[in-house]
Amino acid sequence: MIQAAAPALPTPVPAPLPLREILPWAVFVGLLAVIALYFVSTEQGAVALFADNYVHEFTHDGRHLLAFPCH
After folding, report:
1. For a FRET experiment, which of 29, 36, 68, 70 has its CA 20 to 30 Å from that of 14?
2. How far apart are CA 58 and CA 61, in angstroms?
3. Where are the transmembrane segments (predicted)?
4. Residue 59: exposed, middle, or buried by beta-carbon count in 10 A (0-12, 13-18, 19+)?
5. Distance between CA 65 and CA 25 in Å, rounded?
6. Are the beta carbons of 59 and 40 closer than 8 angstroms?
């Protein structure tokens, strides 16, 4: 007995993402990354935006993990 071939399924085509939708989110994430890098790398007391050592102590382990000296 001869079997009929299965019907061919259409190949899905991914929809293109417009740059106008991605760009604001990319800028926002980039800004958050720069702010996080500032607090991890340079917020140490000598050039501190905030008084006391709260930010320094909060980011202390991350600073050592990323090889930024702080002692």
Report:
1. 29
2. 8
3. 22-40
4. buried
5. 27
6. yes
Distance between terminal CA atoms of the chain?
82
Q: Give the ranges where 1-71 is alpha helix by DSSP (H).
A: 19-41, 54-58, 60-65
Question: In this structure, is residue 3 part of a structural domain?
Answer: no
Number of domains in the chain: 1
**CB 70, CB 64: distance < 8 Å:** yes
Could you tell me if residue 36 is inside a domain? yes
Cα distance between residue 4 and residue 1, in whole Å: 10
Q: What is the amino acid identity at position 8?
A: A
